[in-house]
Specification:
The structure holds 3 protein chains of 3 kinds. Helices cover about 70% and strands about 0% of the residues of chain A. Chain A has 13 helices and no strands. By secondary structure, chain B is mostly helical. Chain B folds into 2 domains: about 30 residues; about 250 residues, MetI-like fold, CATH 1.10.3720.10. Chain B is flat and about 85 Å long. Chain C has a single domain, classed as Rossmann fold (3-Layer(aba) Sandwich). Chain C is built from 11 helices and 10 strands. In chain C, helix 4 packs across helix 5. The longest helix of chain C is centred in the middle third of the chain and has 18 residues. The chains are: A mainly alpha, B mainly alpha, C alpha/beta. Chains in contact: A-B, A-C, B-C.
């Protein structure tokens, strides 16, 4: 085939594909810009106290929906603290729980599990990772929440907060547990993969020095797997942050902040994470102030996701000098 | 156990076959760690088993063949009425639209990044954009989509309301946004596969005078077909399982409601439901409050996802452990390619 | 001597007639030309008999992987104050025998052992395995420093051994002392004293191997096992490590497995030649190299096979 037409064909192909690449870039850029542009009015009219506490989010949202401003405030009045608090609580608790469980399970899978157990556990983990979030939500709301309601929340406890909220099992605990179960499989897979690829000479060298197997795992294998653990945590946190549907079904949805001062009851109070709120309020995207508020929430989510990526990158840097490649 | 005739095997060998190193001699804190690992492993098994068995039992309890062919019909006797034909059709339509858009786009993008990739800064930016999509919550994609499709010039993709504003919710809208969702998985799988094709294959083709485009089309892509297929299957799995985009972009009707008179386009411009939104609506979180139907639909959903997983495993010959997981892992932690071309 | 002739494998100044050395023996020929066994490189002194003490005893040991007997009926002593070299062709079982001395064969499934191996009179199977491995340390063929700093590598086993007592600061000073001592014994301290916190992976191959030796020495073992420690190194590093081995033999019993006959000649006091799992010949190194009593030994040393 003559070179010349080949080259023209190459140029043409390159240009077409390049155009596609640019289109994707423009699309994502447009998305980020649009979200922030549409979020701006809500931020500007509320200022920094957008992030602060101040009343019940539900009433504020309803006011916007009905276009009747709350007494003493304008129509865009919004204080997102209960939502942010709810997001923080569920995400942090779920990720911490999942991290501990995942590391232990990954170590079990790669080091201690007998071969038949490992052979069955691996496809099971793969299966769990693929279950859609709505199914988890279903299990949560129809199985776990009533269980918690009946066995863990006593009537006395319900009475103690009855004047503010109803405890019915759809709460922080249920949300955290189900979220943790959702993000564990992928963390286990990532960490187990990293543990398996720790070079044998290091493990053998440690054992030959008289260090028992557990300490070898902790001091050599887990240390070498640290970049993977960080990556897994970042991934899991991103998933937890963005989880909307399952949390919408399971977390209770009261628009005020769960109060840690309530002691143990705190664990059983309903919460309202950001992403779940967006889904629940999606009808209102045609009404101006509500739309801006929703975009503001989305903007917060976007920024958190970006910060997460950066934190993950930063956490891996110190290890590179010791030759532990991510 | 003859030793080649030279020296016979020991008469009475006190053969010591070593056992696994027992943890009895370890310090207490190490033993606690060891037992914790075992406990967690077993607990994970049990939880997984519980979930699967629970869904199976509850799902089968209500599942009947009739459900697959009847449309959802509201009635006072919730547990007796209607089936989920429309949601199934809806799922198929959405998956089809999403895959038809995402598959060629994803492969093309991966090819560009991997084989062309000039200027380098643009390629890096595109890689970051794909990472962003992978990390963005699907709700954000959904509301962005709603904003875009509510623009009047895109009214042909959904219906126009009476007062001139565009509804913005339709199969088209949801399908297109789903395509964006599936993109990173397809791009990731294809890039990984292309990276594993050794350079000498490309060099051999160039040495024969073929252009880069020809090489890609006739040599590289055919050789990585299984990986592309598995990437597409993973993308489909993601599309099938997502609910947020459906809830926001497909409207609130349980049955398929077409728009206008053109047969296929009318349906695609209209609203409907998918299995996921059907489960959501029938659960206590939605309006339906028909848990049995929700269980049945959820069970069907689960089976579909299982089948897709099995398909992915078979396509990749089981070489890649945890298809969706490792593909997701690769899509998100991919190394920078070498820009030597 | 004709400078073009390859140097002889044996010492030059002997009473009986000198052999003419054969050309390079087997795959190790490349190494022989670089370091001639001149006076400086030969061990000049015999080990002082007063310091020689038996540390380990291998008695009628048979080792198998699965159904395959890899080592058959081997009996050897391991003494402090001298270097024991295990030589033989590939597959002779010498590495397996070495690894059984610190029970490293146990990490492979299906390994079995018959016979007795004792450390200071105690059967090693009855000792706690990690305790045994601290007393009998091993250095591997490929240097395998951990992905940590140099100090952390050397202090690795130490931190396990000393039970935490006293305040943290004191413990660190103790550890630092012991680590420096180990690095000195391994002959590495002077080269890296400036920066102990550097990543161990940035050292050269020879330095890494000496770091591994330092790491093994940190726990003050009674026996040091070396599995072809120089096969991955250049001749200069090899020479440094060989001198190190000869220096160390006063305080530690050393068992070295080597493919390189010249190396065995340079460093060993006693040599055990193994073939297909059996111990063919054992004796002082002059005797085995100059006057081997078995034909097979003669064949191996002269390069008839390898």
């Amino acid at each position: 085939m003559p070179r010349r037409s080949g080259r023209r064909e190459d140029q043409r192909t390159e240009r077409m594909l390049g155009a596609l690449a640019i289109a994707v870039l423009v699309l994502i850029g447009a998305m980020i810009v649009t979200v922030f542009v549409n979020a701006w009015p809500s931020f500007s009219s509320n200022g920094l106290s957008w992030f602060g506490p101040g009343g019940n989010v539900d009433t504020q949202l309803r006011a916007m929906q009905e276009s009747t401003p709350l007494p003493g405030h304008d129509i865009s009045y919004f204080r997102a603290w209960p939502l942010i608090w709810g997001t923080l609580l569920t995400t942090v608790f779920a990720v911490v729980l999942a991290l501990v469980v995942s590391i232990l399970a990954a170590v079990f899978l790669t080091e201690f599990a007998p071969a038949p157990v490992r052979r069955t556990l691996e496809p099971v983990i793969r299966l769990l990772a693929g279950v859609p979030s709505v199914v988890y939500g279903l299990i949560g709301i129809l199985a776990l929440a009533p269980l918690i309601n009946q066995h863990l929340i006593s009537n006395g406890r319900k009475q103690s907060v009855a004047y503010v909220v109803q405890l019915n099992g759809a709460d922080l605990t249920t949300a955290t547990v189900i979220l943790a179960v959702m993000i564990t499989p992928i963390m286990v897979a990532l960490i187990a993969g990293a543990l398996e690829s720790v070079p044998l000479p290091w493990r053998e060298g440690s054992v030959a020095l008289g260090v028992n197997r557990w300490r070898t795992i902790v001091r050599v294998s887990l240390r070498t797997a640290r970049p993977a653990i960080v990556a897994a945590t970042v991934l899991a946190t991103a998933r937890a942050l963005g989880e909307a549907i399952m949390l919408a079904m399971v977390s209770g949805g009261r628009g005020f902040a769960a109060n840690p001062l309530d002691g143990l009851t705190f664990l059983f109070e309903p919460v309202r994470p950001l992403a779940a709120t967006i889904v629940q309020q999606s009808e209102g995207l045609t009404i101006a102030p509500l739309a801006h508020t929703i975009y503001a929430m989305a903007a917060v989510l976007l920024v958190s996701a970006a910060l997460l990526s950066f934190a993950g990158w930063a956490a891996k840097q110190p290890l590179k000098q010791y030759g532990i490649r991510a | 156990m003859e030793a080649g005739g030279l020296v016979p095997a020991p008469a009475r060998p006190i053969v010591v076959r070593p056992r696994r190193q027992s943890s009895a001699s370890w310090p207490l804190i190490d033993r606690i760690g060891y037992w914790l690992c075992w406990a967690t492993g077993i607990a994970l098994c049990l939880i997984a088993l519980a979930i699967v068995v629970f869904m199976f039992v509850k799902g089968i309890a209500y599942l009947r063949p009739a459900l697959f062919v009847k449309s959802p019909a509201p009635s006072l006797q919730q547990s007796q009425s209607g089936g989920f034909l429309d949601p199934i059709v809806g799922t198929l339509i959405i998956t089809a639209i999403g895959t038809v858009i995402a598959a060629p786009a994803g492969v093309a993008l991966a090819v560009w990044i991997s084989e062309y990739g000039r200027p380098v800064s643009l390629a890096r930016a595109v890689e970051s954009a794909i990472d962003v999509i992978a990390g963005v919550p699907s709700v954000v994609l959904a509301i962005f989509g709603l904003l875009v499709f509510s623009e009047s010039f895109l009214g042909f993709l959904s219906q126009n309301a009476v007062n001139g504003s565009v509804y913005g919710r339709s199969f088209f809208a949801a399908g297109i946004v789903m395509a964006i969702l599936a993109l990173p998985l397809i791009v990731g799988s294809t890039r990984e596969a292309l990276a594993q094709v050794p350079d000498r294959v490309r060099e051999a083709s160039y040495a024969l005078g073929k252009s880069r485009a020809s090489t890609i089309r006739w040599v590289l892509l055919p050789s990585i077909r299984p990986q592309i297929a598995s990437g597409i299957a993973l993308g489909m799995g993601r599309i099938i399982g997502d609910t947020a985009i459906i809830t926001i972009l497909l409207g609130v009707t349980l049955t398929t409601e077409g728009v206008g008179s053109v047969p296929l386009i009318g349906t695609l411009r209209g609203t409907g439901s998918t299995l996921t939104s059907y489960v959501y609506n029938n659960s206590p979180a939605g309006e339906g409050n028909a848990p049995q139907k929700a269980y049945a639909a959820a069970f069907v959903l689960l089976m579909v996802v299982l089948a897709l997983n099995a398909l992915v495993t078979r396509l990749t010959g089981g070489r890649e452990r945890g298809g969706r997981l490792s593909a997701l892992r690769r899509a998100l932690t991919s190394r920078r390619p070498q820009w030597t071309r | 001597m004709d400078p073009l002739m390859p140097p002889p494998v044996r010492r030059i100044a002997l009473d009986h007639e000198p052999h003419i050395a054969p050309p390079a023996t087997g795959p190790n020929g490349a190494g022989s030309g670089a370091v001639a066994p001149s006076e400086a490189h030969r061990r000049l002194t015999r080990p002082d008999p007063a310091t020689v003490r038996e540390r380990m005893r291998i008695e009628s040991v048979w080792l198998a992987y699965g159904e395959n007997w890899v080592v058959r009926d081997v009996t050897l002593p391991v003494r402090k104050g001298e270097v024991l070299a295990l030589i033989g062709a590939s597959g002779s079982g010498k590495t397996t025998l070495l690894r059984s001395l610190n029970r490293l064969t146990e990490i492979t499934a299906g390994a079995a052992r018959a016979g007795r191996i004792t450390l200071e009179g105690e059967e090693i199977h009855e000792l706690e395995v990690n305790d045994l491995r601290r007393r009998v340390s091993m250095v591997f063929q490929q240097p395998n420093p951990f992905p940590m700093s140099i100090y952390d590598n050397v202090a690795y086993a130490l931190a396990e051994q000393r039970p935490p007592r006293g305040r943290r600061r004191r413990r660190t000073a103790e550890l630092e002392q012991a680590a420096q001592e180990a690095l000195r014994r391994a002959g590495l301290y002077d080269e890296i004293a400036a920066d102990l916190d550097r990543s161990a992976l940035k050292l050269s191959g020879g330095q890494q191997q000496r770091l591994c030796i330092a790491r093994a020495l940190a726990a003050e073992p009674e026996v040091l096992l070396l599995d072809e420690p120089c096969s991955a190194l250049d001749p200069i590093s090899t020479a440094t490590i060989e001198q190190l081995i000869v220096r160390l033999r006063e305080s530690v019993a050393i068992v070295i497995v080597t493919h390189n006959l010249q190396q065995a000649f340079r460093v060993a006091d006693h040599v055990a030649f193994m073939h297909l799992g059996e111990l063919i010949e054992y004796g002082p190194s002059e005797q085995v190299f100059d006057r081997p009593s078995q034909q097979r030994t003669r064949d191996y040393i002269s390069g008839a096979f390898g």
